[in-house]
Amino acid sequence: MSKPMKAAKRAEKQRKLAERRARKMERKQQCPPTVTETLPPPAVLSDDALPAMANDYLFHPEKLNALCEWREEVRPLGLTNSGVTCYMNSALQALLSVPMMAQHLQQGTHSAVCSTEGWCAYCYLETLARAVVTTPKQAKSRSARPVQPKELIRNLESVNKFFSPFDQQDSHEFLLCLLDKLNEAFLKAAGLQAKELSDAKVHTTPVDQMFGGWGRQAIECPSCGYQSTTRTFFLDLSVPVDGHRRLEDGLATITAKEQLSGWTCDGCKATVDPHRRFTVDVAPQHLIVTLQVFDPINECKYRRQTTFPEALDLGPFTTQRTKTMYDLQAVVRHAGHSQHHGHYYAQTRVGAGWVEMDDECGTDVKLKDVVAHRSRDTDSAYILMYKRREFRVEPTDAPESTVACWQGPPTDATQPDGRGLVWMMKGEQRVKRLDPPRPRVWVR
Fold first, then answer.
1. N or C: where does the chain have the smaller number of CB atoms within 10 Å of the terminal CB?
2. Comparing 52 with 74, which gets the higher pLDDT?
3. For residue 431, what are the domain limits?
């Protein structure tokens, strides 16, 4: 290769790297603010970052919980590739394999109230979901054809101003930008602005309720036991794979204790060297895991692949350390040597089976082929989507003073009509009330 060609290739790599860094900086600036609070020991964070009553939600959660399973047998259609849009197709196919997401979009609740002039990502995805997610009979008919997402391709710059129909992008970055765009469209249709809402309420949009969770970062003083706690909202967990054979090993790494130095404790005012630890405080309905398969230094992929299970227990990595089971729903894979080129495709759960969606083509595959360890380092799992087995059940409209409700011991006083007394929490004061209907609470 001649020197001018090498110089041009090197300049092109530097240009793409600069664009990627600029996109990351833009996303970092758009990240929601963290909720910081300081708690004395031995306090443990509860659900106070979550809305306490149904009217605190932007979208009623019971409408989503009713869609956690397919109402009928489905078979997805493929998406045509315009040349470099496999990253977009694979992310959309994985997203529409989630029953709650696909059926919510098919209902068309957003387009019924949207008054946006021009292109709306939410309205378009509702149309796309109705076209892609069909029944097996419709998929086998002669009129069934792969769907062409031309309108989305023409409006890629609306999803992210750095996206172009002529350049391949990162599938994970496209997915997160699309989810952010859906949240923006929802708030705009409701006539709301994110800065006007509390940090808890702004994350009760349909998308955030389906895929969002809360993380807890705690720093504990080794001298006095004082805890400084920060809560952040997340849509996905980024897990390292270099040096880890299993997904659980990567999750253990991001939730392991980290040694700090020169930290001033707000409790005893001493300068100490504490440990900092991140845990999942509120597990999401659907867990998105991004595997860090790309080596940013050498601009290639790590050779060793990480295995992942069909059934994942997130419990050991949560604050409460209680069993929290997930089932694998979709996998986005990347075939290629680096992030700058290659091919993306998706493997999705459809009913009791699995389908490999490679742009226009859909092929039945077995579960063992989805989770099997691949010997080739060029073909690796990149994005994992897990569906929670036990969905969080949201509170219905409860009395204003009710934040938590738990039954007292059987020896508590009993009224003549047989109703027992129940301890209710009103602020920090425990008060007794007659046994009311117990509000449904968050099931972890």
1. N
2. 74
3. 402-444
